[in-house]
Amino acid sequence: MSVAGSPPPSRQLTREELAIDPVEAAKLLLGCELEAGEVRVRLTEVEAYRGGDDPASHCYRGKTPRNEVMFGPAGHLYVYFVYGMHFCANVVSLTDGVPGAVLLRAGEVVAGLDQARARRPAARSDAELAKGPARLTGVLGLEREHNGLDLTDQGSPVRLLAGEPVPATAIRTGPRVGVAVAVDVPWRFWVDGSPSVSTYRRGGKASRRRQDTLR
DNA sequence: CAGGAGATGCGCT
DNA sequence: GCGCATCTCCTGA
């Protein structure tokens, strides 16, 4: 509902909306915005990870101190450290006791551009600022301490907001990036035409692959 | 633009 | 120890 005469403020997503299968949650998250401090990023590329039957998922082999957030309520932030120097961020989408999450792979900075640039001086263009999972967490300043935050809580320092809806015809899907197993599952989704979408690299050997329009 | 190598900490086998 | 849901710098086309 919007007040007459003024645009509706960005609505925060609810836990209930996110308590769905990670593949569905991934499509839902495209176009949504993640806000931390002054910086806000519109999500343009995401990747689904499902517990149980997905060998590429961190929770595939059960609960550990690192992945325990994925076993908690949907809508929370799962941040992990990788390659000895980077952080990656996920939105938890646990449903029916099955752990799952959506990796935030890329986005466009829509607010706090100055701070984002200062955090990523290596970026050669604004489109590159949040191009890739570690860059995205970088511009938002997300680190270990943010692991487990409730993105659906109004008082949270990191919040997930509904943005401009992305039409289904603009959503594209393809294999996941950088993982060594289960690469053939088309659980990566991105907004067609966005310059912030990371270039595809298969885990291990490099080879090009087809992109499919979602229907 | 594509491909290759190095950097670097830690979770898990 | 091994291998990683990566990035940056460098080369060659």
From TrEMBL:
Protein name: Putative 3-methyladenine DNA glycosylase
HAMAP family linked to this entry: 3MGH
NCBIfam families referenced in this protein's UniProt entry, alphabetically: 3mg, PRK00802.1-3
Family annotation (CDD domains): AAG (cd00540)
Keywords, alphabetical: DNA damage, DNA repair, Hydrolase
Top-rank taxon, per record: Bacteria
DNA repair keyword on record: yes
Organism per entry: Actinophytocola xanthii
EC number: 3.2.2.-
GO molecular function, one term: alkylbase DNA N-glycosylase activity
